[in-house]
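Researcher: I'd like a structural prediction for the single chain below. Treat it as a standalone chain; there are no partners to consider.
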Amino acid sequence: MNKVIVLLVFVFVVTVGYSQQNQKYNFTLEQAITFALDSNYTAINSRRDIAIAIKKKWETTAAGLPQLDASLAYNNNLKQPVTLLPGEIIGGEPGSFVPVTFGTKENASATATLNQLIFDGSYLVGLQAAKTFLDYSYNYDEKTQLEVRKGVINAYGSVLLSEELVSIFELNKANLEKNLIETRAIYENGFTEEESVEQLEITLINIETQLKNSRRTLIIAQQMLNLSIGIDVESDVTLLNDLDALTQENISLGFLEENINIEDNIDYKIATNLTEQKDLEVKLEKSYSVPNLSAFINYGTAANSESFTFLDNEQVWYQSSMLGFRMNIPIISSGLRSARTQQAKIALEQAETQLTETYQMVLLEINTAKNNYRFAIENYNDNKKNLELSERVEKKNQVKFVEGLATSFDLRNAQIQLYTAQQTYFESMLRVITTKVDLETVLNTPQLRNN
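Model: Treating it as a single chain, here is the predicted structure.
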């Protein structure tokens, strides 16, 4: 019976695991991005960082709120200590001693203490630091989401490119096989040289090699997309966008005229957070030179007995209570606090310099991204024209070859030129998409932060 249960559990686990791995998905690009922002592994941990920061803020806040502690104690003196008193106390001889046992064999007590911070400069700075850390965590989560979005778009486009290359290589292979059959028949009838057949065979071999490599590349690209989305790499994903339509959607020269607001750049926001943090560290070191004040009040009760009678109604309990204040006044630290404050000030100056550098770097990134995007669009348009010309040249050489006006070498050159133009054209389409997302990321136009 136990073996049957184990077998059923094993079959269930394997079935569930297999179904998860083979789950099918259908995504447009926007759907893939939305899914990834929720399921990507890095995005999930980034949200957990925010949760930690929120709890950290409350931890800091709670340190200044009333703190109530209680304690219970029970002591059983298995062997009570004996004290020797001079014998003269009870009329004994001088120099003699009388053994005496003080207290009862058992005692119990209960105490409750309420502590309240009244003033502490480091606590006030800590509250500000906790808020700054939370802002940093939100900004870093925003950066993570931007990177996840960018990764999904790049991976999605890479899959579409690989699919296009596989399709075009399959088409080219089919056309070459047809040309090879026709040319071999012409050769067998004595109307062309054997070299013509061999040239086509060489071209066909190259195309078959490229096709095999493209199919392998497509598998890797699909798995990379799955990983970026946050699903099992073996899952079956169908893409609902095509490369050409996606390229047209991402061609927007007006986007290049977007106003540059460097303060919106996520790296600049994070650098600003770090500068604020260093400023608070300076304030924190200064706060250690200011007195702090706290108060406490406690209440306690205690009982004594020769046996365990503490739960009896007749047991007598003695009450006690105390109210007090504590003030810590820093006086001399032999330069310790001053040295720490100076270190914090230097660190703040470094952060301010880094913030200025970040500003300039972001400005350079924006200008570079705009230039790359403009070039990608121009390159795409040029490659589109190039492809059209290469297709016409290849068709003309096909006709000339059949009519005996062009050599097989001329035809092969025209075919290679066409295949190169096809691949370059599709790659330029992907480049338009990827350079657009680079520009969007540096400008932070998606505004993905969930407030």
